[in-house]
Amino acid sequence: MIALPKIEDPRGNLSFIEHGERGACPFEIGRVSWIYDVPTGRVRRLPAVPSPRMLVAMSGSFDAADVRLTRSDRGLPIAPGTETRLGHFATNSVAMILGGEDGASEPCQCGDMPDSHAISSVDECRVMELPRRRDADGSVTEVVNGNPGIPFDVRRVFYLYDVPADATRGGHSHHRAQEMIVALTGCFDVVLDDGCRAPRRFSLNRPYQALYIPAGLWRTLDNFSGGAVCLVLTSERYSEEDYVRDYDRFKELTAHKQ
User: Fold this and answer.
1) Whole-angstrom Cα distance, residue 36 to residue 139?
2) Longest CA pairwise span in the chain (Å)
3) Which of 38, 45, 89, 258 is disulfide-compatible with 62, CB 3.0–4.6 A?
């Protein structure tokens, strides 16, 4: 098992996975999938593939071969060419599988990129229907880099869990990073602000839907239900330079927006 980064906070815990020194992922992310709505007693099979994978219990618990996965801050590596049986799913469990190819790419140089705050709009945001495969053993949704309909390649995954019902998360914008936000379990709201138009509120409650957020928008998350898990897929690996955490600074960056 690999210990994944875990940032503890009274507003809920956050873990993240990315390739490189910070993210504890031994490969570049090429696809992200999650399994949910598995009936009691059913077994899911992960077929052997030529690329490495990592398995995480995002909610609840289940067995992977002879290993019990119970924690969101632990990842189980699966070697290339290995078939894996998943079983003994607890109620409302969600299994996330990261897959990809070995290799690294250069981190983003955000200082060399155009700033999105002056052009982004809340009108660009939308709730996307993601692929959903359903059968007697549950449902699977998958996001694959390079597929039509996916607005960017995923370079980093992070997720919020153990969030109190009265907590508010977010409170920042990005110069460059785009995001897709998914309610893996439970529900919550996302409020988006472009500094010019009226903010828009989106309610998320389906694991096969994602809210697309372009760079340059201020976001807050609230109204979390009990046991909610918020998955965020991002276009960039972590860089503190990409964040705007002060709302007054955000308003300065968007002041000349039409």
Assistant:
1) 5
2) 58
3) 89
| Encoded amino acid at 257, one letter | K
What is the structure's pLDDT at 177? 95
Stretch (H or E) spanning 143:
strand 138-144
Compute how many other C-beta atoms are within 10 angstroms of the C-beta atom of residue 191. Answer: 17
For residue 97, give Cα distances in angstroms to 17, 31, 77, 163, 222.
11, 8, 10, 22, 27
Amino acid in the structure at residue 31: R
| pLDDT tens digits, one per residue of 175-220 | 999 999 999 999 999 999 999 999 999 999 999 999 999 999 999 9
Q: Coil, strand or helix: which one is 123?
A: helix
Contacts of 45 by beta carbon, 8 Å cutoff, 6+ apart: 83, 84, 85, 86
Name 139's bridge partners: 36, 134
Q: Which two tokens stand for residue 117?
A: 């705050």
Kindly tell me if the per-residue pLDDT of 112 is higher than 60.
Answer: no
What phi, psi does 57 have (nearest 5°)?
Answer: -85, 100
Rounded to 5°, angle at Cα 90 from 74 and 132? 85
| Cα 56–chain centre separation | 12
For residue 253, the surrounding DSSP H or E stretch is: helix 247-253
95, β-bridge pairs: 35, 57
* Residue 181 in tokens: 């936000």
pTM: 0.93
| Distances, alpha carbon 133 to alpha carbons 31, 40, 171, 179, in Å | 16, 18, 34, 23
User: How would residue 113 be classed by pLDDT, with cut points 50, 70 and 90?
Assistant: low
